[in-house]
Amino acid sequence: MVILFVSSSIAGCFGDVLNDDEERGISGGLALACLQDDKFKDMEIHFLFEKGYDPIAMDLVKTRLQEVCDKPGGIKIVAEEIDFKIYSTWSSNDVRDARWKHGGDAMGSETLHWYFLFPSGTHEDSSVLGVAVDASTVAIFKDSVDEAEGLFGRPSSEEVERAVTVHEAGHLLGLVNLVYTSPIDHEDSEHPNHSNNEDSVMYWAIETNDVGNFLTGNIPDEFDDDDKSDLEGMASGSLKCKKQLWS
Q1: Tens of pLDDT along 97-126?
Q2: What string of DSSP letters covers 62-109?
């Protein structure tokens, strides 16, 4: 993959968890709940989207989670059109509030629930394409994704959206080093909690408008071997996980 970066800056892609929202956890706080089957035998991925902002990566996200999560009861997609009533810029707190207003308990019965929001408008940091705000919630900003399309449509906005959506799912799984410490040196020192491998979907540029500067090759939409090794270690218990809402 040949990459040209116009800039090397990155904004934070994690919304701060408020003290009074600690029960909602941090990104990665429900990683073990997904990776293991001790408590949650099945899972629902809720895609909440504004009219005209239909997600295109629902099946891909389901596939990526099936590849790493132990859910003998299966993983189900639930899609719902929502009028979020926010039409311009979103803060991370806005994302969190909207998810909990329109979504339910993340840990209901034996079903684990994660929420992917696709609102109109942009994040207050215009460089951000996606953001993870708590243990069960991410948002993808399709207006910004469309603007991140590369020169001559390489990469396309569709490719960008798929990669960003899987990237944010990776943060809910705790990647990279969000709730554990990897024995593998694959975290980008200049962009914490992201991969230093350009062929990993967890590469830092994936969720920022820098992704549009990928000139040739395909944007990765899969976890690389190091990511998968971390997830396997977390699932088996060989990697100790912290700040879990359930374990």
Answers
A1: 999 999 999 998 889 999 999 999 999 998
A2: HHHHHHH---TT-EEEEEEE------SEE-HHHHHHHHHHH---TT-T
Q: β-strand 111-118 against 130-134: which pairing, if any?
A: unpaired
Residue 137: burial class (beta carbons within 10 Å; 0-12, 13-18, 19+): buried
Distance of alpha carbon 140 from alpha carbon 156, whole angstroms: 16
User: Do the Cβ atoms of 26 and 179 come closer than 8 Å?
Assistant: yes
Domain 24-236 has CATH 3.40.1050.10: no
pLDDT in tens, 142-190: 999 998 887 666 788 999 999 999 999 999 999 999 999 999 999 999 9
Q: Is the pTM of this model over 0.85?
A: yes
DSSP annotation of 206 reads: G
Q: How far apart are CA 62 and CA 85, in angstroms?
A: 28
Break the chain into its structural domains and give their ranges.
24-236
